[in-house]
């Protein structure tokens, strides 16, 4: 198992375990996640227009990984009962898709960070 896959798996399993066992309800941060996502989208567009340096790329990739870790935490907890925002049993297929997208995005950002650090 190489470093990129191992790092992504450890992060994903750690966040999932934390989301399943904690008493804190992270589904209340839905609005903050939307705002964080919009800020990252605007920052990405600005980086395309203005160009990016090495340090800006590392900061952007780190914040992207953090963003999708928070989305993974939100999505896992939205499957659990007793949360402010919870999905119905009919929504399990889209929820699985959301979790899959979160894991892929975390893997991509961690891979980008490792690539930037090694260059």
UniProtKB/TrEMBL annotation:
<keyword id="KW-0812">Transmembrane</keyword>
<feature type="transmembrane region" description="Helical">
    <location>
        <begin position="28"/>
        <end position="49"/>
    </location>
</feature>
<feature type="transmembrane region" description="Helical">
    <location>
        <begin position="54"/>
        <end position="74"/>
    </location>
</feature>
<dbReference type="Pfam" id="PF01027">
    <property type="entry name" value="Bax1-I"/>
</dbReference>
<dbReference type="GO" id="GO:0016020">
    <property type="term" value="C:membrane"/>
</dbReference>
<comment type="similarity">
    <text>Belongs to the BI1 family.</text>
</comment>
<protein>
    <recommendedName>
        <fullName>MARVEL domain-containing protein</fullName>
    </recommendedName>
</protein>
<dbReference type="InterPro" id="IPR006214">
    <property type="entry name" value="Bax_inhibitor_1-related"/>
</dbReference>
<keyword id="KW-0472">Membrane</keyword>
<keyword id="KW-1133">Transmembrane helix</keyword>
<feature type="transmembrane region" description="Helical">
    <location>
        <begin position="94"/>
        <end position="114"/>
    </location>
</feature>
